[in-house]
Each structure stands twice: as structure tokens, then as C-alpha cells.
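Dear support,

Our group has been running a series of protein-ligand predictions, and this particular one with flavin-adenine dinucleotide is the one our PI (initials K.S.) wants archived with full inputs and outputs. We had some confusion internally about which version of the output was final, so please treat the block below as the authoritative record. The input we submitted was:
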Amino acid sequence: MVMGDLVTEVDVAVLGGGPGGYSAAFRCAELGLETVVVDAGKRLGGACLYEGCIPSKALLHVAAIIGEAERAKEFGLDFGEPRVSLDPLRKWKAERVVGKLSRGLASVAKAKGVEVIGGWGAFEDSRSIRVGGDEPQVIRFKHAIVATGSLPSRVPGLDLASERIMDSTAALEVTEIPERLLVIGGGYIGLELGQVYAALGSRVTVVEMTDGLLPGADRDLVQPLARRCEKMFAAVHLKTKVASLKEVSGAIEATLGGGQGPQSFDRVLVAVGRRAVSDKLGLETTKVKIAERGVISVDERCRTADLHIYAVGDVTGDPMLAHRAMRQGKVAAEAIAGRPAAFDNAAVPAVVFTDPEVAWCGLMEAEAQRAGRAVRVAKFPWAASGRAATIGRSDGLTKLVVDSASGRVVGAGVVGPGAGELIAETALAIESAVTVEDLALTIHAHPTLSESLMEAAESLLHGGTK
Ligand code: FAD
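Confirmed final output from the archive:
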């Protein structure tokens, strides 16, 4: 510390105002701890609100309407070709969606007495953070929570400084609708944004290095999505790497592996994953341990190797999802307040908001096989669902993974419209040790897509085992 420094003393200093950070701060305040949040942008919401979950879902909603209108032609409804005006679209997203939620978070912070300090924060030691920028000060804390999140990963060698090369943050700005868009990466961010641009009118080519879209996800669930992508996209290249990108007369020339000739694109979206933000945080002045890929190591109470410092959210590694960050934030706050909390959730749902949606949680079939765990698997194709037929979406599938010995539901997956909502029931089932019989005997309203969970459970009870 230097003479003349403005020093703020608090119980808890939270570094980073994303979902992990603000959830932690709000819970700390509720538990009577004096709490401040340091955020580089002096705002709460983080990547989720400004460049992630929320703006992408707003744009996917627009894409879904376009898709539904297209499908409605089958039932004799023709709205004509969609005309997209980017200015009102961007304004709606920025003001009515992101702006509204941002103002909401600011007012919650005010109501709970959580101050948000703007500036980059870095540890000076295990008890203080120095904040730079317009509000320079040193914050002395009893405990700190690192919630600095993640940033888009880059591909070495494809780091061309060109406006035509976008990461997810730039793509969400929708500055234009490129005629030809190359998406590098067939993970959830690449596919969600690829579908947004395809719906808006771009010819989208997706390149994925592994042998399937959504690497790591259950293959039965991916299949209907892959079929849809084949229809929506100009091309999907699997087991393919982008060898080089070059800016050539107002376009990007991409050379794809596998001996294909160079192809020209108006824009390129690089969506190859995210990396934890743990550098330039002064963590070397603390006892915090950093593992591979910059991930901060934490125990089940979200505490780092430094007794005074906790870490939550993307900076603690996979799965990098907002709801996991929020839960961890609450666990860290409770642990600091001396309560018996732990991040011991059996199921962290994952949702891909594409058309069709893909969602899963708990133990999936391939994982169970790898672990040598005895499970029974039920699959209920939506071709047999009344509700799916009424909305013209018989392409879905519901899958249950049940522990053979106990009959408990240990995993579930859904692909189809609304999968992201349907998966919530299975997360509760897994956390509550629900058995396949409980699920089969629970009355699910007819006709709904949720019946597919009951039907899948029934098929296991009545012999449809695998
Ligand atoms: P972040 O949200 O990354 O917030 C970190 C904050 O800390 C930022 O405001 C940053 O500016 C600030 N910061 C960092 N370092 C410092 C410092 N030293 N000093 C001051 N401030 C600092 N997740 C889902 O669950 N569902 C989705 O549908 C979903 N969609 C996504 C779509 C896209 C396109 C992207 C990119 C991500 C998506 N995610 C989604 C992931 C989700 O956004 C993250 O998991 C979530 O935001 C992580 O929260 P966090 O609190 O760990 O960090």
C-alpha cells in the first residue's frame, strides 16, 4: 500500500460482476456481510448478460420465429418472406432485453447495499485488492471471491486482425448479415450463432475438428440437431481443421484441411471455446493455485488454496455455464458466513438453444459405459407423442438413464423444442433420488411434451430395457 491510497475496508470483496460474482455478492449481503463488487465495466451481468446467454437467446428467439413461420407453410399458413431490419432488432436486444435486465440487477444491488466499484482489480496480497481506473483504491477484505469469468479462446495461427473475423461477442452485435459466413467450431456457441445467421439469411458453413457436432454430447440427442443443421447450413465439414485464413480483396479466404481448395467468406466466426481469466489478477501474491488452462482450483466449498480467497464460475473451469456460476456463488457466500454449504449438486443441466433444442443432465449413457456403471436406458421417440404431432415436431427424443440396482434416475437427455424447460424436471428428479417408478406413476398433463419423460420411465418399468 502507498501513502495517500484510498482504502476501503469490507467483509467480502467480489472480483467480477458476472452471474457468479453478483449471486455471491447478493447472498453475502443477505447474510449480513458488508460486500463490494469490483467489475471492469462497473456493471453487473458479466459475459452472460452482455455478450453471452441473454443476447444470444434474444437472437435465437428471432431465428425461432423465422423457422416457425417457414414450417407453418406445411399447414397452409404463408407469411411471405421475412424482412429483417437490423436497427430495430439491435435496439430491441440492447434496450428491451439487455438494458432492462441490467437495470434490474443494478437496483437489486442498491436494495441489498452492495456497492459496485468500476475498474480492473488485482490482488496485492491475500487480504487486499488494488483497483485501477477512474475509482482507484485499495480494498482490504476479510474474504475475497474471484469471479473473473472467461473470454473466447483463439486459434493460434488464425489470429488475423480483421473486422471480418469475429468472436462470439462481435457476432452478437449483428453489424451486418454476411452473405457467406464461416463458423469455426461446431460446439454450442458456433451452432447457436450459426443458426441465428442462417435464419437471418446468411449462407453458413460450419467446420468442426472432431467427428461430430456438439462434441461430448450424447449422440442420440445430437442426431436430430445434426439433421436440421444439414438443412439450414450451406455445408457442415466434420473432421476438418481450418488451415489458414487470409484477407483477400474485401473477403476472407479460408483453406480447409482435407485437400479442399480455398473458399471465400464475407465473415468468419471463431467459436472454439472459452478460457478462464486468471492472468493479470495478481494471484501470484496469494496462495491461490492455478491448474491447467488457467483454471483456479477450488474445493467443494469453492475455497481456493488461500484460506481467505474463494473462486466461482467460469474461472474455476468446466462446465462454463451461468447457472453453475450462480450456484457456486451462493455456496461461496454461505461458506464465508460459516454455513454448511457445498457445491455437491448431482446434476448441472446443459442446454443448447438451437433448433431443435438439446438438453441433458446427470450421467449420460456413454459416461456410464466408460465408468463401467450398470444402468438401464430408455428412449422415447417423439414420433409417438401426441403433443409433438400437434406442433409438427415429431423429430424429438427423450432419454432416461436409470441406475440398474436402485432404479434411481441418474441421467436424462431431451432433444426437441422446449428441451431446455423439460430438463428441469429431470434435474429435480436426479437431485431428489427419484426412481423410475416415481416418474412413471406421476401424472403428467396430456397432451404435453413432458409426458415423454413419463413414457420413457414406463417403458423401462414394462420391459423396454436395454
Ligand atoms: P463472467 O460472466 O465472464 O463475468 C466476469 C466479469 O468479471 C466480467 O464482467 C469481467 O469484465 C469482470 N472481470 C474480469 N476480470 C476482472 C478484473 N480483474 N477486475 C474487474 N473485473 C473483472 N451459459 C449458460 O448457462 N447458458 C447459456 O445459454 C449460455 N450462452 C452463452 C452464449 C455465449 C455466446 C457465450 C459467450 C457464453 C454463454 N454462456 C451460457 C456462458 C456464460 O455466459 C458464462 O458461463 C457465465 O457468464 C460465467 O459467469 P462468471 O460469473 O463466471 O463470469
